[in-house]
Amino acid sequence: MINSNLKSIIVPKPWIIEAAVQALREYLELRPQATLIEFGTGCSTAFFAQFKINQISIEHDPRWHSQVQLYLNQNNLTWVNLELIKGNYYEVLQRFQQNSIDIILVDGQHRLKCLEHGARILKPGGLIMLDDSQHEKYQVADQFFSGWQKYQVVGEKPNPISGEIQIAQATWWIKP
């Protein structure tokens, strides 16, 4: 069932630490022609849509995809390419040429595979961000980005559904 009262669920404020959101905002303001891929959709999709960039948003859950599509339709955000991809959705990265994407946000499934395969298609100077990078299983991500600039922030982020405040970490790398 689709929830038609999306104003309280999907808002243009990502469920990411504010310092990381600010980094994304500053990066995009300097690149009005950017191409972005996000893995995991919702509030970040609404946030990125404000920039009217070339946006590819990948979701694996059919019910959540329907929620996000409804939000996009209700707000006439027609330039967002929202895709439902079941299975290994990082494989979508094979469609893109090397050095062709400006920014990648990884906040969904198969995070390490998205990072690993995303490194190839990111442009020099491009940014790839991993949300919730505090989990031990993501510490190996640095191996994909040897020689890249690395940034990391820790802070609070509210969960707009439960209202809980969580302590989380976001990490991003800039390709040389």
Overall description:
The radius of gyration is 15 Å and the shape is globular. The chain has one domain: Rossmann fold, CATH 3.40.50.150. Strands 3-2-1-4-5-7-6 form a seven-stranded mixed β-sheet, with helices on both faces. 24% of the residues lie in helices and 30% in strands. The longest helix has 13 residues. With 176 residues, the chain is of the alpha/beta class.
- The ordered string of helix (H) and strand (E) elements is HEHEHEEHEEE
Q: Evaluate the radius of gyration.
A: 15 Å
Average pLDDT, all residues: 93
CATH C-level label: Alpha Beta
Give the tally of structural domains. Answer: 1
Strand order of the largest sheet: 3-2-1-4-5-7-6
Give the overall silhouette. Answer: globular
Number of helices: 4
Give a short overview.
The chain contains 4 helices and 7 strands, in the order H-E-H-E-H-E-E-H-E-E-E.
Which properties best describe this structure?
24% helix, Rossmann fold, 176 residues, globular, alpha/beta, disordered N terminus
Question: What secondary-structure arrangement, pairings included, does this model have?
Answer:
Blueprint: H1 18-29, E1 35-39, H2 43-49, E2 54-59, H3 62-74, E3 80-84, E4 101-106, H4 111-121, E5 122-131, E6 149-158, E7 165-174
Parallel strand pairs: 1-2, 1-4, 2-3, 4-5
Antiparallel strand pairs: 5-7, 6-7
